[in-house]
Design goal:
The structure holds two protein chains of two kinds.
Chain A: H1 20-31, H2 35-47, H3 58-63, H4 65-70, H5 74-96, H6 101-123, H7 127-193, H8 204-226, H9 232-235, H10 239-247, H11 254-272, H12 274-297, H13 300-315, H14 317-332, H15 336-366, H16 368-383, H17 386-397, H18 401-426, H19 429-437, H20 442-471, H21 484-493, H22 497-528
Helix pairs in contact in A: 1-2, 5-7, 5-8, 6-7, 11-17, 12-15, 12-18, 13-14, 13-22, 14-22, 15-16, 15-18, 15-20, 16-18, 17-18, 18-20, 19-20, 20-22, 21-22
Chain B: E1 4-15, H1 19-29, H2 33-40, E2 43-54, E3 58-62, H3 69-73, E4 84-89, E5 92-93, H4 99-108, E6 110-113, H5 125-135, H6 140-153, H7 169-182, E7 187-191, H8 199-216, E8 219-224, H9 227-233, E9 236-241, E10 244-249, H10 251-256, H11 261-267, E11 283-284, E12 297-299, H12 304-312, E13 318-322, E14 325-330, H13 332-340
Parallel strand pairs in B: 3-8, 3-9, 6-7, 7-8, 12-13
Antiparallel strand pairs in B: 1-2, 1-4, 4-5, 9-10, 11-14, 13-14
The chains are: A mainly alpha, B alpha/beta.
Chain lengths: 529, 345
Amino acid sequence: MTDTNTELKVTAASDIEVDRETLDASIKSFVGPSGDYYVNAFHRIHDNTSLLPKTFNLWAAVLGPLWAASRAIWGMFWAFLILEIIAWVQIGRGLWGTPGSEFLERAAQQAELMQKRLDQAAAATEQADIDRFNKLADNMQRAIDTNMERVEQAQAEALGIMVTGIILLLVLKAVQGFYANTVYEKQYSRWRIDPDSTESGRSVRNAVMGVVLTAAIGPLIIYRFTVNASMELLEAFPERQVSELVLGPDNGTLFGAVASWMEARIDAAATAGGDVFDGIVAGVRAVLDALTVALNGSPWPVVMLVIAVTAWRAAGPRVAIFTVAAMAYTALLGYWALAMETVALVGAAVILCVVIGIPLGIWFGKSRRAYRMAEPVLDLMQTLPAFVYLIPIIAFFGTGNPPGILATIIFGMPPVIRLTALGMRGVPESIKEAAVAFGASKWQLLKDVEIPLALPSIMTGVNQTILMCLSMVVIISLIGGGGLGQEILEALQFAAKGPGLLGGFAILFLAMVMDRIVQGAFRREDQKN
Amino acid sequence: MGETVVKLENVWKIFGAQAPQAMEAVLKDGLTKPQVLEKFGCVVGVQDASFEVARGEIFCIMGLSGSGKSTLVRHVNRLIEPTAGKIEIMGQDVSAISDNELRRIRAQQIGMVFQHMALMPHRSVRDNVAYPLEIRKVPKSKRWAVSDHALGLVDLTGYEDRLPKELSGGMQQRVGIARALASDPEILLMDEPFSALDPLIRLQLQDQFKALVAQLKKTTLFITHDLDEAIRIGHRIAIMKDGVIVQIGTPEDIVMNPADDYVREFVQGISKLKLVKAHSIMEPLDSFSGSLDGAPRADHGADLDQLIDLAVATEHPVVITEDGADLGVVTKPRLLRGIQGGKDD
């Protein structure tokens, strides 16, 4: 505080001299070879106040992407490699491409045909026939002329294409020349912040890598796009030849071999674990049956009344009115039983998601390692298109409503797991520490602190899970899931617009009612806290 | 000093995966902190800390952030396990007890107050204060009564049913104090309780807290990074630097005889008015040649502040007494020097 051994001189900002020496040394250690040039260039960039660059890097202009590669500016390398290849393709097409070749071919065919007609005319004996053939030949001649014109046009265009290519190339070179140092200076700034993971200097390895990449990509692309008769090998991947090479001739393809192997495996697994899978299905069915009995077994006026009152209590009068209207729509159009089946399906899926997902989320929230292991699985569950896992589900669990619920769970469970884990990790350490300091056991800590504080996040997760489950309603009808989804699927199969739309609206109303009620309930809960 | 309530003996805390090996190396070869970091990748949080706190004493631990004071105090209720050393609470070795026993001690014997209050946002003020009792499964009626009483101690009657977020920062921290007092613990651990509050509120709370603790006779470990606060509140102060306790002493001790330059630097800006007592600046009676008739009298324990009040009302020097007998004299020049910090003429 009272240390006076470091004397501080106060200077006006305009009087402060730029300390070139340390800066120069730092630039040089970053740049490596030709340090003086870049020191100079960077100073110009630093002194520059306008937007236009004030330096020109000749080597960057001449070598293009290779310069960028040798300096490890990979973004610039890739961008200009692609752009330069485009320019080279244009030049190539102009130089040795065969523009208008398809017209030339057509003209040749037509010339042949014309010759045939002329021969026929010569061979004919009756005047009418001669006239007819000659006329046909004339027509051919005219078609040939237009095609030849087109060929000429294309050849004229070829020159234009080449010129465009050359201009593009020159512009690219100029841009690289002018902006190379600016880009390099940006890399220098990054290097100053993070010298360990930012490459610096010029290395042979990078230069070689640049040359190899350019040599591998450039010529093939230019060849493919300039020469019309390209190699068959480059057109499509030679998977048949590879299959033959691996399996021997006449033994089918790799695809066939792997597919049948997998089929056998899956069948074996399904038989081996039959009891387990049946048990799972039975469990899911029990939940579903309970809900179905409650929703479809109870007299409809009771169910309607309960739903309307729930909407009122949970989300207020406006949602209640909307709910009643939606129920009237479904009931009047004869969708009531189907709609309740759908609610039962979604409800069972959501209940299972929550019952399994929240404990998992709590575990993942507490154990970082478990979460790291689970995260790829969760990602997979969400990113896999549903159609992909419908097949193993059929294989293991058969078809019908319970397998449909299982498919729904796969898609719907990740949000509740993720958001529970997120909520658990968001609980302030200080509050947890306080609870522990007052003697709370692990269970008390969880029950009194962590879950209550994570609850808003958990509820968001549950809400998202509900919506995800709803979105699966139509898809699971593909594997025999019932309810409104089946209605839509049938309408889709017969392109029945009317029934399809009516059913679609029924699902829409269902989704909106569920979402409104749940959100309303959660909002109330939130306001209490 | 009375009975020892908290006792730390050669407590070490080393953070890192290889802490036990590092500890062994430190004890055997006497590695320094940078060496430990380099060789084992371990950070020494607390280095060989020993102290005792007597019943009813307020023991301040002062140090800058990162000096290990929070780490040190968390050893007392074993929120942090020591790497080496012994911790005793009322004669019981805490590192030897079972988890259940530890939880019982935490809930009954030790109250803790945190810098960021750490109140549970979803519980009312009353339920927050009652939480330590709830953990011990005290019935609700009893819990609420105790909690209301504790809130009364910190002048928060009438706020029982509010949520913490409805209260100001100072009030929230009073809730934190009430929570720490609710289970009537023997020991209070105060982890920078007033640091996050604005200065005026801080002063008020310091005074309130000091009075409260004196009245309730709680043994207190009080962490702060503010020496003024330590001096205002503490009976004794331990100054920590980089995990080492540099000096332990009464506020007067520390201000008058700092152990090293580090402490000296801290002490420099401290006002001596309330710290320096008359006996430490008085001169012998016979050194004053003039008449002492009508001179005001003060006890030898009076501080500079009181002496100034006496001195400004008269032209005479102040006579210092002990048990009614004249002991010495403080002249005005002497008094002024005393305010400066005991500089010699």
